[in-house]
Amino acid sequence: ERFTFYVFKARSARLEKPIWNRGIYMFRLDDERVLDASMCGGMARYINHCCDPNCVTEIVDVDRDLHIIIFANRRIARGEELSYDYKFDYEDENRIPCLCGAKNCVKWMN
After folding, report:
1. Can you list the positions of beta strands (E) in the chain?
2. How many CB atoms neighbour CB 26 within 10 A?
3. Which is nearest to 103 in space by CA: 46, 47, 53?
4. pTM reported for the whole predicted model
């Protein structure tokens, strides 16, 4: 489901409430639009963040519809978890700790 950034702010605040007990799987497409896979979506929504990721994301336009493509940026071993850098905006407050364990981990996802 695609919607504006303003809807994203309201929806993410609602989904963060403990009564939902589910993750938030939203991906910013551009400055105005967000893709929400919180209720339904492909298995790629479960790919975790890492400061030393083995994948990269690219947003491509196909017939005026934006799609997220995930590419390997190095050889990935069988059984290795897929990961990419979420590239969250920096925030002074509400910091999200990074637990990726990479040697170059910056300790915060935002």
Report:
1. 2-4, 26-28, 33-36, 48-49, 55-62, 65-72, 83-84
2. 19
3. 53
4. 0.73
For 94, counting Cβ atoms within 10 Å of its Cβ (0-12 exposed, 13-18 middle, 19+ buried), the class is exposed
Rg (CA), the chain: 15
> From CA 44, how far away is CA 64, in angstroms rounded?
22
* Digit-coded pLDDT (tens) for 33-73: 888 887 788 889 899 999 999 999 999 999 988 889 999 99
- Rounded to 5 degrees, φ, ψ at 45 are -65, -20
- The token pair at 71 is 């590419």
Spatial CA neighbour of 23 closest among 33, 15, 14:
15
Q: CB-based burial of residue 33 (10 Å sphere; 0-12 exposed, 13-18 middle, 19+ buried)?
A: middle
